[in-house]
Design a protein that fits this description.
Blueprint lengths: L1 E6 L9 H12 L3 E6 L16 E5 L3 H12 L4 E2 L2 H8 L1 H10 L7 E4 L5 H5 L4 E5 L9 E3 L15 E5 L6 E8 L2 E8 L10 E3 L3 H14 L3 E9 L2 E8 L11 H12 L29
Parallel strand pairs: 1-2, 1-3, 3-4
Antiparallel strand pairs: 5-8, 6-7, 6-8, 9-10, 9-12, 10-11, 12-13
């Protein structure tokens, strides 16, 4: 069987050692394994053919996702599925789906007019995010309305979320099938470059992590959690995490990909349906809902 990896543009001097090891393991098990970075290729989309039995998305770039969409449209098998990854790429849609699935997420507002956030920012600190993006690019903490003016040029529409105070560390949670791992990193806008320290996965965090996976039909994924005053809150869900800091995870990743390729593990190629939550959040007071 042939497995092709769509790899991420490098931010480290060396490729991700965990996935490089997993790819070598798959080769030793008899798979024909290939991989490249989409941005370093010249592709003719109308000539893109299904040359592989399985494609693994290890990149969140718009070009990679576009190529995955073409392969999906032609019947290609993709881990994770293209519909799930496309929805996750849009933070507005993703945050809403997580909330509908009962995952604790920050309160969110969206707008195409940046000035409309001033009244909201006068009531509470906000995290301002571009509606598409990853690795923390373009994210700003706004503590009051005056700080909005200091934000550089922004892409519209805007996703604004209530700021959740945490411990000062990032809690990075990584999932391989039903196995859940966690590491801690000191928070910074470059924390994705570092390697975290393994830590315990509490039952609430495990439940939240698996709930996220079920909401999107994911098999390999990661999430960022803020440990807030009222418990853990998910602030990001990532379909192509690096798993850095998780000990001995490469064999687990290779085993999961092998099982998926051989049909022993099945993920739906369409998004799982969600029921409407029985206990929706109470409505905001009128002065905070505008």
């Amino acid at each position: 069987m042939k497995i092709h990896f769509f790899l991420n543009q490098r931010v480290h001097a060396e490729p991700n050692a965990i996935f490089a090891t997993a790819m070598r393991m798959l080769e030793r098990r008899g798979f024909a394994v290939s991989g490249w970075i989409a941005e370093e290729q010249l592709c003719a989309p109308d000539h893109l053919s299904l040359d592989h039995d399985l494609y693994v998305l290890k990149s969140q770039t718009e070009l990679t996702l576009s190529l995955a969409g073409i392969l999906h449209d032609r019947g290609g098998r993709i881990l994770n599925s293209y519909p799930a990854c496309a929805m996750l790429q849009n933070k507005i849609v993703a945050a809403n789906r997580l909330a509908r699935a009962g995952v604790p997420v920050p309160r969110s507002w969206v707008t195409g007019d940046f000035s409309l956030l001033r009244k909201l920012a006068s009531k509470m600190p906000l995290i301002i995010k571009p509606y598409r993006g990853h690795r923390g690019a373009g994210i700003h903490l706004v503590r009051n309305a005056d700080e909005l003016a200091g934000i550089p040029a922004h892409e519209l529409p805007i996703l604004a979320q209530q700021f959740i105070p945490g411990t000062g560390d990032d809690l990075k949670v990584y999932v391989v099938g039903e196995q859940v791992f966690a590491v801690r990193k000191p928070f910074s806008n470059k924390s994705f470059l570092g390697t975290g320290v393994p830590c315990e996965v509490t039952p609430p965090v495990r439940d939240i992590a698996l709930r996220c996976g079920r909401a999107f039909g994911l098999g390999l994924y990661g999430l960022d959690i803020i440990e807030g005053p009222d418990g853990p809150v998910v602030v990001d869900l990532n379909y192509s995490p690096g798993y850095r800091g998780v000990p001995d995870v490469a064999p687990l990743i290779a085993g999961y990909i092998e099982d998926f390729a051989c049909g022993c593990t099945i993920l739906s190629a369409v998004l799982p349906p969600l029921s409407t939550p029985k206990s929706p959040r109470p409505a905001l007071p009128a002065e905070m809902a505008t």
